[in-house]
């Protein structure tokens, strides 16, 4: 008897091949996927380079802010209103600054998540960091401080204090960049376009800002938002008494700088603490939080909770910021307050 064999038609051969490829794909797809994921996780960012690029971005954005203001080419329009009914304005200064800052950072560090206050589809593929590291950063910060790119969130505010900007109250205006690692603010940059001063700090490693020699809580000078001054004044007087000095000011960045030892300038108010009792966006406060943390200070919610600087851009718990005071004792003096109910 002749040996039996298996004879496949061309169609059968094709089906067999397809099934074989499918089996091989399923065997190796999981391996390939896990290796790609591991490769992505291995992508690192040098934080000294990211700090230098953040400073450059804030300064370049500030140049646009100043130029537009001096040309009186604001072309302001309303983006709507805040929860509290205050008008939110958008100017050409906001947009031009955003384009410089966002594109520089995103093109230089494409694997990093970057959030900006402004939304704009203009892409500038040529914008990138110059690779220059300022001398004071080289002097104070060592290189080689690598972190996984997917742990980094960058918050940029292309123009803080837009309302004051339109009123030509330019002392309040700043541009800001913050780098958060796993939700914690680590690098903060606050640039003043109309004085040219740039404050920066890298938590645990140094910066170019200092706390003042003394602060007081009996009673304190408290800096607050100009747009919500009425409600917050009553809140603060309940906490510290009617003799408390309350300083209404524009811009969260400016308010943080008012807590620090600043270069001699008539344009900075001096405050002991900063309090905000309504909702506020994280691009407004992250850079300031990093500066304060680097000096051993604090920025928390009104209940003393740490603020997570990842994901949702809205901080709903209000905030209290201090430098060289007993922050826990400060929190204990604050009245109960639910920002989401006011």
TrEMBL record:
CDD domains: IPPase. It is found in: Membrane. Its cofactor is Mg(2+). One of its GO terms (cellular component) is membrane. It is a single-pass membrane protein. The keyword Plastid does not apply. Pathway: Polyol metabolism; myo-inositol biosynthesis; myo-inositol from D-glucose 6-phosphate: step 2/2. Its EC number is 3.1.3.25. GO terms for biological process: phosphatidylinositol phosphate biosynthetic process. Signal peptide: none annotated. Keywords: Hydrolase, Magnesium, Membrane, Metal-binding, Transmembrane, Transmembrane helix. It is an enzyme of class 3 (hydrolase). It catalyses: a myo-inositol phosphate + H2O = myo-inositol + phosphate. Gene3D superfamilies: 3.40.190.80, Fructose-1,6-Bisphosphatase, subunit A, domain 1. Mg(2+) binds at residues 117, 157, 159-160, 284. The chain crosses the membrane at residues 12-38. One of its GO terms (molecular function) is 3'-nucleotidase activity. Belongs to the inositol monophosphatase superfamily. This is inositol-phosphate phosphatase. It comes from Parambassis ranga (Indian glassy fish). The lineage of its organism: Eukaryota, Metazoa, Chordata, Craniata, Vertebrata.
């Amino acid at each position: 008897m002749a040996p039996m064999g298996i004879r496949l038609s061309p169609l059968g051969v094709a089906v067999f091949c397809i099934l074989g490829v499918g089996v091989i794909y399923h065997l190796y797809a999981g391996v390939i996927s896990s290796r790609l994921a591991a490769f992505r996780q291995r992508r690192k960012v040098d934080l000294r380079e990211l700090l230098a690029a953040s400073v450059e971005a804030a300064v370049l954005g500030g140049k646009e802010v100043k130029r537009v203001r001096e040309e009186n080419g604001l072309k302001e329009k309303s983006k709507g209103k805040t929860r509290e009914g205050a008008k939110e304005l958008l100017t050409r200064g906001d947009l031009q600054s955003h384009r410089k800052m966002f594109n520089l950072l995103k093109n230089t560090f494409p694997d990093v998540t970057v959030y900006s206050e402004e939304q704009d589809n203009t892409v500038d593929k040529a914008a990138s960091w110059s690779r220059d590291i300022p001398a004071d950063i080289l002097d104070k910060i060592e290189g080689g401080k690598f972190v996984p790119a997917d742990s980094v969130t960058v918050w940029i505010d292309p123009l803080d204090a837009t309302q004051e900007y339109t009123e030509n109250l330019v002392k309040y205006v700043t541009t800001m960049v913050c780098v958060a690692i796993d939700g914690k603010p680590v690098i903060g940059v606050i640039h003043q376009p109309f004085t040219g001063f740039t404050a920066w700090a890298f938590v645990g490693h140094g910066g170019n800002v200092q706390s003042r020699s003394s602060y007081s809580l009996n009673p304190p000078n408290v800096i607050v938002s100009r747009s919500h001054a009425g409600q917050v004044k009553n809140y603060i007087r309940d906490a510290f008494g009617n003799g408390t000095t309350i300083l209404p000011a524009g811009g969260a960045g400016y308010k943080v700088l008012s807590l620090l030892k600043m270069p001699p300038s008539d344009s900075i108010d001096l405050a002991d603490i900063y309090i905000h009792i309504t909702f506020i966006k994280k691009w407004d406060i992250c850079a300031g939080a990093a500066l304060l943390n680097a000096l051993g200070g604090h920025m928390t919610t009104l209940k003393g909770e740490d603020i997570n600087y990842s994901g949702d851009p809205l901080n709903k718990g209000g905030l209290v910021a201090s430098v060289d005071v007993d922050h826990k004792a400060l929190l204990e003096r604050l009245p109960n307050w639910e920002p989401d109910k006011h």
